[in-house]
Structures are given as structure tokens and as C-alpha cells.
Amino acid sequence: MAYKDTMSAEAISALGGAVEELLHIGKGAPRTAEIDKVTGKAVYIDEYQRPGMLHGKILYSKHAHARISSINTDKAKALPGVRAVLTGYDVPDVRVGFLGDQTLLKRDVVRQYRDEVAAVAAITPEIAEEACRLIEVEYEPLPAVFDPLEAMKPDAPLVHEVDARGRPLRSNILPLPWKLTAGDVEKAKAESAYVVKDEASTTWINQCCMGTSGCVAEFDSNNNLTFVSLTNVVFGAKGRIASYLDNIGLKRKRIRVLNPVVGGSFGTKLDTDIYEFICIQLALQTRKPVKLQFSRDEEFFALPPRQAARFTIEQGCDKDGHLTFRKCEAILDNGAYTSWGATTPSVMMLPMSSMYRVPNVLFQATCVYTNNIYSQAMRGYGNPQAAFALETSMDHLAEVAGFDPADFRMINRNQPGDVTPMECKITTCPLDRCITAVREKIDWDQKRGKGNGRGVGMASLIHVAGGARIYMSDGTGIRIKVTENGELDVISGSTDQGQGSPTVMAQIIAEATGFMPEDVNMIFGDSALGLWDAGTHASRHTFVAGNAAVRAGAQVKQQILELAVQYIPKLVKSALKKQKRKNPDFVEPELDYSLIDSPEKMDIKNRFIFPKAEPDHPYFRMEARDVVRRGLHVGTGESKHVVAEVFWDPPTQMLNAEMKGNYSCTYAFGAAGVEVEVDKETGEVKILNLVSAHDVGRAVNPILVKGQVYGAAYQGVGMGLSERVQVVEGKVVNGNFRDYKILTAKDTFPVEAVIVEDPDPAGPYGAKGIGEPGLVPTAPAIANAVYDAVGVRILDLPITPEKVLAALKAKGE
Amino acid sequence: MKQEIQFVLNGEQVFADVDPQWTLLYLLRNVFGYTGAKKGCGVGECGACTVIVDGEATNSCLYPVLEVEGRHVTTIEGVAAPDGTLHPIQQAFIENNGVQCGYCTAGMIMSAKALLDQKPDPTEEEIRTAIAGNICRCTGYVQIVESIQMAAARMKQ
Question: Scanning every residue of chain B, which has its alpha carbon at the shortest distance from the alpha carbon of A47?
Fold first, then answer.
């Protein structure tokens, strides 16, 4: 497959080599578009109301693995206010999910504690909850398996006896193709001067969106569905729901997916969850709008967390410190069903093959069914898990080979023009600047290697930053309409999860069109209005939607300038005539209309059209909206509306059968450095300083970019030190904010976000995606700092005081 | 059995017939339509429901509704000036990215306001203590703390 140059003509002209002239890009524009969030007026799913709306509630399994012997819903149905009670026997036996391995409500067998056994719709949430308590279910427990290694054994209890097509299964291992090889790992290993081998593991992490999951489903009298959903993949959700409705006999029904304001996302909105299908089914049954919203409790036990993973990683280098090979085998506890946790290896492969220059690579991942909770996406997808194994192994190898870990990373750093073993094309790559910035700001050379209870650690990252072609289209559509009042109504096919898209997109569109950011009215998250979009995931929104916006903005500008050629002379002449009528002594000026006789001779900035040769021309400098209005009201059947629509699909490749291909237009690099103090008595790790340096291409809005880095870095600290969903024999036992430890404002330490700019030719005004990277290197940097401080490598996250103490004890301290 | 209570809500004398089992949060959201305070957990752990009762930042999800009798309650809806001009804390959150998804924001601003009303010139430590009960997953708190500092500085002028 030929590599297509990612540098488009439009992108180059957008950059224009005239970076210093940018008016809105690079400015810390305020989030005025989201003012309702600070006044309490924003409408989240919590507030979303429809006339006659009912409330849904789900009854979950009481066992990790059991046969359902009976369900009695009589008492629940008799409760006043209940409008529907559904079990697996009341809904069509239709499978959903990426591997089609589950149904909405489970009929015969439950395979995990969060299995949905029954659902209720009632006039209040309280009555729905009471009705759930009145449903009587009898179970016959079955042997369960909770350890993926146990589950791989031939005599392990089978979580599923048949696959989606009803064919018998003999193993708990999923038929997923996660294997990437390049070069000859065994030969390279034999020739390496130094080799290390480690085992590392990461656990389940709850995304902890502050707004809990929820949706509202409503059918009209034609059985067309309006589905108000928190999804960040409006069209993916629509497609999954469409095939479900098709499968239950509602063929070719119209579906409109709408977003309310979303209270956090972090991966949870990527898949269409079972509760959403159940809500749709309740709405269909009752013929009423139904809302189903999770409690915090459900958010912890019934929402798939970050995929847990175990890695065996081997790396080698030559005597000069150049990496020779990397071999990694991952085992993923898939839980009882399959969501987007099972596809995290497609992203784990990126760092495993492409972080640092390494010629020989083998990566393999095995997903195994167990009776645990199943997993999905979380910020960074599989990258934080893989980076933890990889970056702790880098430190180990640096030590064995006798290199300073920062030097070792510099020796092996990626460089512009590299093509990685996964066939990713590295375009811009200021990784060296990121590592150097961290090294300086964390005072690396002074603080490292003291072994006195204080230490410093570092880790790097690579991530997709120019879209991620995981579907056949990685495109997005945008439509810009300029009104006669000079507003820009912009409909984006993508979604906003609170990351700042309304502000950043307004800046990009203002820059591209010549209007002001405050003129831009962004409309997101409506499948009926927006063109198709692959989803606001994979740090792709600013890059992909921004690129579409730059192109649509250029078209808008061109249209206005064409109208300007036609109508500015007319507007000027009629103004002069008016003056003449008012004042007969007025002498008409001699105007050189050739200054504005073609679009190329004019430009628009800050709402004004002007001739380039004379920007302050007293007659030709004119508000763009006056020209737009004139063009819209011509009076001769030739009126024109300024509107542009662009669907942009980045010039990237799907991964091929060997899992190789340039699936992003560009890649983001970065490094984190952490200084820690470890209390040898208590095992407690205290962060003294955190520096996170990131290659952002260009910061469209430096304040918002920093916000992404800070927020992600804090999530990374949680991953490193405190966060874990504790699952005991399949059951979540710490599902609340007392027992599940996320950082509060009191967990404070100095944190610095270093923004490294190296404008990417493919990015909108040079920007790369930066939503996820801040999280990725944080946890391994902490682990490496702990080793520097007290000489123990904790390779099982989170690094709790108990683990530190146990490791110190094993070391004899 | 419902009981009538009377209290001051965002500066206005109000009456309501309440079920004694309700919380203040339920009353605000379901009777008065003030939905800025959120039920993020319902058990006083996340702070998304924070309102100000008689000058103190309070988890309204735990606050028994009958206790409201005769008190002054301020919600996020009562923070901006009547003409819509934002309070300096709200303005700073907008300018300095103190808000991302916004779900915690109302509670966060109420905690900050309760602090600044009592202590116009707080230290960073005092700010962090004041918002320690308000969990935010988006920001890492950095720009929230900065926003509150920015607001405090502007309010002094």
C-alpha cells in the first residue's frame, strides 16, 4: 500500500508560513460558549425531561455464575405506578455487543454479578427501584473462574458454552487476532549485549465520570426512535441501535441520537451499553419516553472499567544502548462479555512497536473470558497499560546496561522521518525536547540515584494524534452557515464531552473564515443534523474536526469574497449616491475598483473584508455580514447563501492482516518526570513534583491544552498510586468514593504542564490531538521514581503502601 | 404526610409542602427546578450537590428537608447578579478553564463562594481544604484553584 503524503494543499495554505499573523489560534480564549455550566443552567441527562416520561431500573444478578431456575415478577407488576416489568423471556432473544456474546436480559445463565436479569419502568425512579426489589429470582450456582490464567486451562469452567452463532466453545480464550511481528526477535535476542525480562500488571480502573450514565428513549407513533444518549460516537451508537431494532423486527426505522450536556466521558461512552438497549426496550414496551440513569453504585459495578492487563515483557540492547528487540505477551481478563476492552491491544501495539527505535518486535495479546466484570475503553485506551510495562522495562534495561534512564531514552528516541515496525510514519517528533524539558525541570541530574528515600523517574509516550483509523472511515463532517447577522452556525457531526471543543472549534473556524470566535455557534451531537463522524475518541477531535473546519472555513471565506467582488462596488456606489442625494455638493471620490475585482485581492479578518493592497481603504473595507446580507437578498432570482459543508477523512490506512499500517496522520510524543518520597516505615509514596511535557503540534488554546494535560496527569497519578476497582470473586467491593480512591484537591503536589510546539503540517494550524497523552507516562514514571528512591520495582499497579512494604521486606529492609 | 416549610431561597422568601423524608437536594431539583446542584453520589462523597445554607457550604443530598425551615439557602442559580452578570468566581472559571465537563462546577463554585464570603484572601491550602469535598475528574484541580485565586484577587479590587 502506497503511503500518501498527509500534507494536504489546504493544510499548507492554512499554515501559510505566516504563523505570526494568526489572530485566534494560540490564544487563551475563554469558554464563554459553556457559560450555562457555571450558572447551573446546563441540561445534563439528570435534568432531561419529556412529557409522561417513565423511569427505568435494572435488577442485576446475585451470583458470578449461576443458572436461573425461576423468576417471579408478579409482585413487582402489582406495585402501583409500575408500567412494565421485563425479563429475558419478555424480550426477543437477540444478541448485542461487539462479539454478539450477550443479550439484554439474561434468560438461563448469569455469568457475572452485573448481569441484567430484569428491568422495570415506573412513574418514579423510587417505585422502579422498589419493584426491582420485589422480583424473585432463584439461582443454581455454577462453578466460576476469576483468574484469566486459570480460565485458560483446559479443565476450567466454561464462561460461555456456545458462541454468538450457537457453535459449541471448548475454551475461554477469545478468537481475536492480536499479534504483531517485525524482524527476528529470537535472533536479535541472541545477539543482544543485555536483555531483561519483567512481568507487569495493571488493574481495573473506574473512569469516575462525575455525571453518571443515563439515557432517554422515546418512540413516536411510527416507531421511529429518538434516543438521548451520552455517546461520544453518535453514528456508531445509531448503527448499533439500528441493527438491534432490525433484529427485533423494527426494520428501517428512523433513529435520531442526541447528546445532552455530558458530565465526563473518558472512554465510557464509546460502546452502546446494555442499559441503553434495555431503556429502548422499556420505551417500546410502554409506548412512553423512558429515562434510565445509573446511581453512583451502579456506575461502579455495572459500567465496564478500564481493561486490566498482565504483561510479560523482554527487551534487549547492544553495548551502545541501542534497543535490539522487544517481545511482549499480554493476557487480558476479558470478563464475561466483550466490549471495547478486548480491542485495547490494537492500541497497545503502538507503543509496543513504535515507542523508541526498536527494529525487532513481537507483541501478542490473549483475551480470556472469566466471570469477572467486563471492561471497555478509558482515556489512552490500552496505551497506559502497555506504557507501564514498557517504560518500567526501559528503566530496568538501562540499569542492566549501565545507562542513565534519561540518556537511554535519548539514545533510542524516535525521530522525524522514522517508519516504525508497525509501519507508522513519524512526521513531526520533538520527543527529544520533551525528555530534555522533563530532565531540566525535575532537576534530574541532581536528584537521581541518591537512593535516600527520594527519587526521580521518567517515562515517555507515543500516541495517535492525527485520527485513528479503526473503522473504514475515520472521517468527520462539518457544516458552516453564515447568517445575514454575521453569526456562524456550525453543525459538527461529532460530540463535545466537556474537553473544550466549542471553544477550540470556534477559534479554528474564526481563524479560517475571518470572523470572531464569539460569532461561532457550535452544535454537536445530533445524528439528524450532523454529517457522519467516527467519534470523539482517540484524541482525534481537534485534529480531524479541525481539519474539516479549516477546509469548510476556507470555502466560506471564498464564497464571501466572491460576493464581495460582485457587491462591494454596488454597496459603495449606492452609498455614494445616497450621500450625493443628501448633499448635492458632495464630490464622488475617484475609486480604483481594480483593488477588489477578484477574491484573491481581498481578505477577511475580524469580521471585515478589505483589499489586501489597502487594508484600511475608507470605502472598500466593509463588514462581511453586510456583503452576506446583500448576496442573500438580490431581488433577481440570483440570491446566494453562504454555506459550506466538508466531510474530511484523513489520508491514513487501516491496519492490515499483520496489524500494520499508518493508522494516524501524525503521532504525539511526550514525557513525564516525577519526584517522589517513599516512607520506608509506612510504604507511602508521596509525589513531590510532577512535570508533564507534551508535543501538541500547536496549542490552539494554551489554557485548554494545559487543562487536558493536568487532568490526564492527575488521572495517571490515580492509576499509579491509588485507583483500583477491587473485585473479589467477581464482585466489586469498593464501589463508592470512600473506598475507591480518586485524587481530591487536598492530594496536592506541584505539577507543571510543559507545552512543546512543533506545528505538524497535517494538523489544523499545526495542532495534534492531546486529549489522552497526559495520562499515559505518569504511572510508569512514578514506578521508576520509586525504584530510584528505595530500590524496589513495583510492577503491579497501583503502587500501594502494602506493596511497597512487602517489596522492601523481600529486599531485606 | 407533607409539612409546610418556609425559608429564603436565593434571596426570596419561599414556601413548600415537603415530605419529611426528602433531602434539600430533592426539594431544590424537583420542586423549585433549581437543577444546578447535582446528585453525583447521593451519599455526601462527591460534593456535586453543594449549596450554601446560612453561609456554610453544605451537601444538600444529605440535608434533611425539614432542617431548612427559616434558613437562608443559596444555590448556583442565585450566584450571578440579577441582570445576569457573572460572579467573579463564575467569570474566572470560564476564563481559566476551571470548568470542563461542568458536572462538579456548581458545587465547586458554591464551596469556593462560601470560602471567599468568609475569607476574602485565602491561602492555596485554605482553598484546597474548602473544595476537598468536591471531586472533579476532569481538571486535576489546578485551574480550579487558580480560578478561585483569580476571583479572590479581582474581588479585592
Answer: B35
